[in-house]
């Protein structure tokens, strides 16, 4: 079994009957959704809130009942992947382009679990390019601003080399920062820019991290 499958299946054990569950996006979350599909088939009663069109398609194919984020008071538990997790458990997400819906779902959740392989655990954030979702109208203005600040923006393209468009209809610029000295300051600056819809800094958000190693799974209860 590969590491992503190990952590996906481990995380599925946290899901209990009656829960509303946020379903993450990406190649690790894929295994979580598969495992939940299996448990639903065996009688588990849950409702899922998806974080992307991809995950929605997968959940529907497995007959996992879904509910719109608008129609829930709160989500009991969200399980998602992550691109980087620092020593103080701050995260970068959005490598798969779903950061906006992922953050909306996480913000509505009582508990958040991230599932990763150990290559994602770092001392300090930033080696993974930071995704920033921006309005498509006049996007080059923000792009130039990022360039002028030395943030090394790269406009994300899809497999056909067209501009990547998110489920929300926006573009993504990946900032190649190498290292992020102060994630809280950077997040606040990005939050204040007109045209920035959301960024991939997920700060003070995760409750439990499930880390997969070659032949073991480690549970880190953060808060
Ligand atoms: C998608 C995400 C993913 O959770 C993140 O990119 C990790 O993906 P993977 O499990 O495929 O490495 O944030 O927007």
Mean pLDDT level: 98
| Domain module count | 2
Radius of gyration: 17 Å
Count of DSSP H/I helices: 6
Tell me about the biggest sheet? 6 strands, mixed
Fraction of residues in β-strands: 25-35%
Low-confidence stretches: none
Give the bound compounds: ribulose-5-phosphate
* CATH hierarchy class name of the largest domain: Alpha Beta
Major beta sheet, strand line-up: 2-1-3-6-12-13
The total of beta strands comes to 13
Residue share in helix: 25-40%
Using the coordinates shown, work out and report the CATH topology of the largest domain: Rossmann fold
Dominant shape: globular
C-alpha termini separation:
29 Å
Task: Tell me about this structure.
Helix 1 packs across helix 2 (29-41). It is globular, with a radius of gyration of 17 Å. The protein has six helices and 13 strands. The mean pLDDT is 98. The protein has helices at 3-12, 29-41, 53-61, 99-107, 139-148, 183-191; strands spanning 20-23, 47-50, 75-80, 84-85, 91-92, 109-117, 130-134, 153-155, 171-175, 196-199, 201-202, 208-212, 217-221. By secondary structure, it is α/β, with parallel strands linked by helices. The chain starts with a helix and ends with a strand. The chain has two domains: 3-121 and 203-221, Rossmann fold; 130-199, Alpha-Beta Plaits (2-Layer Sandwich), CATH 3.30.70.260. A six-stranded mixed sheet has the order 2-1-3-6-12-13, sandwiched between helices. A four-stranded antiparallel sheet has the order 8-9-7-10. The structure holds ribulose-5-phosphate (5RP).
